[in-house]
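User: I'll paste a sequence; please echo it back and then give the predicted structure.

Assistant: Echoing your sequence first, then the prediction.
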Amino acid sequence: MESKQDHLHNEMRELGKARYRSRKQKATEITSESNTIPGRQLLNKCTEEMTKGIYDWVLKARKSPGKHHRCLPFMEMLPAEKIAVIACKAVIDGLSTERMMTSLCIAVGRTIEDEILLEKLAEESPAFFRRMQQVSFKSVGSGLKRRFIRDAAKAVDLVTQRWAKADALAIGVLLTDMMATRTGIIQILTKLNARGRRYCAIAPSREISEWVRKCHEYHEELTPFFLPTAERPLPWSNPWIGGYRQLDWKPRPLIKSRNKAYQTELSGCDLSKVYSATNMIQSTPWQVDSEVYDLIKHCWKESARIDGLPSALDEIVPTKPDDIETNIESRRQWRKAAAKVYFHNESLESQRLQLLKTLMVADKMKSFERIWFPMQLDFRGRGYYLPLYLNPQGTSVAKALIRFARGKQIQTEGQLQSLMLHTANKWGLDKKSKEERLHWIESNTDLIKCSGIDPYANGDWMKADDPFAFYAACKELSNFWIKGFGYNSRLPIGMDATTQGLQIYSMLLRDPIAAAATNVTPGKSPADPYKAVADRVIAKLLVSDSPYARGLLSLGIDRSTTKRQTMTLPYGLTQHSCINYTREWLDEKIRHNPNPFGLEVYKPAAFLGKTIWNSMDDVVGSATRGMKFIRDVMGILIDHDITPRWMTPLGLPVRMRYENYDSVMVSTRVGAKARVLTIREENGKQSKRKATNGGAPNIVHSFDGIGGLLGHTANLALDNGVQDFGEVHDQLLCLAADAPIVAKCVRKATVDIFSRDLLSEFRLQALTMLPPLVVLPEVPEYGSLDVTEVLSSEYYFN
């Protein structure tokens, strides 16, 4: 008899096959087969051969005596590799069907013509071209794209003489014939139509047809649709086997890496602490909360726009004005408004698909008493749940749909307070003090009870920052108030770090100012680093003599002004990207308010961006100093052609290698970018730019993941009797009954890990890989922070 897990396993295979076939069918229907797996492989192979063929043909045509070939002037307008990509893509896009040679050849010629036009448009009007790119390539059909390109060229008075149809045909014939003779993937057939007239057709060769069929069949089996499991995942005890028990598809190793030597190296390392933490997290049983599931489905059917639920109905396209044919301005305004609606509806469609897939998985799993989420780690040691759509790291809707399966009784005031604080956090009070949040709970018991007992009749829960999670919390708290101490709570309680990257840098460099701004040290209420930076910006603007200062203050500088910049600082933010994020904030502000700078936008944004950059250094300067040190070390390693390696706090070896490529990626402007991997082969030389940019965030993630703080916290919690544990990178998930224990564990784990001089350890590891006389920069000067202060910081993980 088939077990529940065997049934799910077979369903994963069949869902994966169905998804693969659907994508394949869609690619065939819209003539985009070059985007399928066999299509990409053929594109790689054929482009390389066609590039050589075109290059040889052009050289020969130039040297031929007498009148030059009619195609030569056109073939010299673009690089050989770009023409090769366009021709190969056009042919491969409809590879599964037989096509008339004349129409295909003209299409190839016209696509090359459009590419030349776009090159000229991009050169002469770059701003207009960037805007056109943003909107035109959301269309599907190449014909629509070409019409859009022509209209765009006319709009900026870039009128070019259309190629003669005979010239477009000649170029297409030349390239199609070259593809047939040099690659062998197509054959040119002469056939008779119904009237007995001869015509030429293009069809895939028999060998290629058979190869494509087998390639599709093979890859269907390799792409299962990962679902949660109905039995406990296989524990990891080596880097190769764990997670999903079934091995009839390609196994997923513990650490995602294409380097087999590195995987083999891992098998000889002591990863017992990493295995223990990973196994604890993936062995935690969950279940679908059927009441939350029913509520979300109800809200979706009623088109309630809450918690990111997309509307079930498309926005109505504006009616065409009566004078659209005669009034140019009226036509332009309608097209602009209609385009906005079209793109909004396009976005809605993808959101609906995400929601429906999440609900589909929830519907499949809600009959199971227990489900599990197998895990995998990236090369830095960060953990990810493998099941798609429904998992603790999913959307806010996905998170609200699941709860722990076992539960544990709430027996103390401290455990009850954890549930209350979580409820207040989901309402949107996570920046308030503990006392303020508990007072809010006491003052809003009626709201909580009404929301938790009958959310259909009482809609106040919809006003929460995280509505469905707030409803789930209200339901749990209401049930506790009815049953009292001893109530078995299953709700996942979230404990969030305060911008964890900044917290880590403050501890690495013992920076007391950054530590206070990120709740590493105790405070009367939760510190807000975004607000702290915003306050510094306001102080600088108040004393600035810049002509932009007063206008910026009038727009209202607050934490939203600085949030994105401060949040991304420890993950590779540059001053340039800081200015770009600031420009986006300013664009949004002047969309709803008068622009105090008239038509000027960039200069005030650049001024404010630089002010934010300097203010961040005042508040969390340890991050910029630490990042510079890591970048410098990474650069020296790459200069000596050494792959950067380091050890995470729990002993996971990290190998970070970003390689350069021999040639530039060929990027056509008509359609999507063509990624020609065989032309763009790794050449064995490392990319210094990628290594220096990626080194700092990768080190931080290796310290905060399962190979570091998260893993050590999980192991300590397990040692203290905690069995149910989840994670969303910088958020810990546990039961209310376990929350006081987990809170102590994460603080002790922090002291254990960050009392070590991790940056000096990293520097020493780098020195051991370098030649003896190479000098590395010293670790930046340490501050006076005592990391053990985190033990008494109530809001460190809040």
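Residues 500-792 form a domain with the DNA polymerase; domain 1 fold (CATH 1.10.150.20). The first strand starts at residue 99 and ends at 100.
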